[in-house]
Write a structure and sequence with these properties.
By secondary structure, the chain is of the alpha/beta class. The protein has a domain of 189 residues: 3-Layer(aba) Sandwich (Rossmann fold), CATH 3.40.50.720. It has eleven helices and twelve strands. Helix 5 links the parallel strand 4 and strand 5. It binds NADP nicotinamide-adenine-dinucleotide phosphate.
Length: 288
């Protein structure tokens, strides 16, 4: 039985870990949310960890509202860098695994048309991506660290707890407005949180060597293509029009192309499901 101490357990992704771990006899989920430890207090980390009995840290806590982080970087650097580094260092000393969840936003997509593998050089275009890139670099100094990069998540807690993920937002706007304008020049790997949880647990069960892995659904899409599929599957009577990042300005830049290559992961636990299948499953589960 592997005991998973999960930071960010109340978040979109942490919530799905709890649900998935219930169905796995080989894992126990130990939530470790903000109520147990506020990660803005780096000095409190060691004492808090010494009191816990666990095998693996899943570090899903993050400050990742990309536009807000562009304007105020410090909370992101505290949670994504300093606190993560302190926990990774403690885990290395104690001989426990540390899993750091990261993002496709460590890449810029500039001049890119093929998926990034794990060894590609990082070149973030926004402050959030820079904080995760720095977090990765620091936590990977320890041999007990694994970095799992994921992207463009949709999960049930996002739908219910945080005002909606992209899928829910498109369905709501489609119903309310009948017409959607969505960027067609940012291409990424849409991914179901439930699938990342399964892939994480499968990697741990397979005792995959420490290092970086890309953990996303297969395939790629622009946000416009993703929105078209959502509206079609939801049966919403709405027109989806492509637009550009230049026309749809945001505070922070986003990568133009950030599709992640999953060949390394596939060699250990098999090829991830295509995002269209993951989306159909997610939408069927939401209806049910
Ligand atoms: N969402 C995406 O599309 C996406 C894409 C790529 C990678 N990621 C990465 O995936 C991971 C999980 O994302 P998510 O969508 O599940 O995010 P989320 O729903 O915002 O969850 C983040 C969690 O971090 C916790 N947290 C933030 N600051 C904290 C602090 N000072 N002390 C303690 N806990 C703190 C939050 O606690 P509270 O609930 O108390 O606020 C929340 O539970 C993150 O590492 C993120 O960078 C996300």
């Amino acid at each position: 039985m592997t005991r998973l101490l999960t930071f960010g357990s109340a978040g979109q992704f942490g919530t799905d870990i709890a649900a998935a771990a219930k169905g796995r006899a080989d894992f126990t989920f130990l939530p470790f949310g903000r109520d147990r430890l506020d990660l803005s207090d780096t000095d409190a980390i060691r004492l808090a960890l010494e009191r816990e009995d666990f095998d693996v840290v899943l570090y899903c806590a993050s400050v990742h509202k990309t536009d807000a982080v562009e304007l105020d970087a410090d909370p992101a650097f505290q949670v994504n860098v300093r606190a993560a580094d302190a926990i990774a260092a403690w885990c290395a000393e104690a001989g426990k695994l540390f899993v750091y969840y990261s993002t496709d936003y460590v890449f810029s997509g500039i001049g890119r048309k093929t998926p990034y593998d794990e060894l590609a050089a990082k070149d973030p275009v926004n402050v959030y991506g820079a904080s995760k890139a720095m977090g990765e670099t620091l936590v990977l100094r320890y041999p007990t660290t694994t970095v799992l990069r994921m992207a463009s998540l949709f999960g049930t807690a996002g739908a219910s707890g945080k005002g909606g993920n992209f899928v829910e937002t498109m369905i709501r706007f489609g119903r309310e407005r009948g017409k959607l304008s969505v960027v067609n020049d940012q291409v990424m790997s849409p991914t179901a949180t439930a699938d990342i949880v399964k892939m994480t647990l499968d990697l741990l069960a397979a005792e995959a060597p420490a290092g970086i892995y890309h953990v996303v659904n297969s395939g790629q899409a622009s946000w416009y293509e993703f929105a078209c599929e959502i509206i079609k599957l939801a049966g919403v009577d709405a027109v989806v029009e492509p637009t550009t990042s230049a026309a749809f300005k945001t505070v922070a830049l986003r990568p133009a192309y950030s599709v992640l290559d999953t060949a390394k992961l596939s060699r250990i636990i098999g090829t991830p499901d295509h995002w269209r299948d993951a989306l159909a499953r997610y939408m069927a589960a939401c209806k049910g």
